[in-house]
Every structure is written in C-alpha cells, then in structure tokens.
Design goal:
This protein is mostly helical and 66 residues long. The chain is 71% helix and 0% strand.
C-alpha cells in the first residue's frame, strides 16, 4: 500500500511541475507557477525522506531495523 501511495505522490509531483511549465509558457512567470514548483519540491523531499536509507541502511519504507 505504501508503494502505491509513494507512486501516486511522484506522479502528482511531476504533474505539478508539468502544470507549472504550462502556466509559465502561457502566462509567463506568476505566483501560482512558483507555488506549484514549491509544492512539487516538498513532495519530492517527503518521498526522499521515506525512501533514501540512512548510514545504517534503514529506511522508513522497509521498516527494517538492523
């Protein structure tokens, strides 16, 4: 279940970046475009927190304690 949630979060982040790019092409630089980019970066950071292992090889996704 967690893998599906992380996958949906990645898709959402990429869609936010795509939407920001489309808004930039249509309207130029706007506040809404920057907010979309910031939201995508926050999602990417949250996914990295869950997926990237620490120095011991533990990650929040695996839930293993070595």
């Amino acid at each position: 279940m967690l893998n599906a949630i992380l996958s949906l979060a990645m898709i959402a982040a990429f869609l936010l970046l795509f939407g920001a790019w489309r808004r930039w092409r249509r309207d130029g630089i706007s506040q809404q475009m920057w907010l979309m980019v910031a939201a995508a970066l926050v999602i990417f950071a949250n996914i990295a927190i869950w997926v990237v292992p620490d120095e011991k090889g533990n990650s929040l996704v695996t839930g293993e304690v070595k």
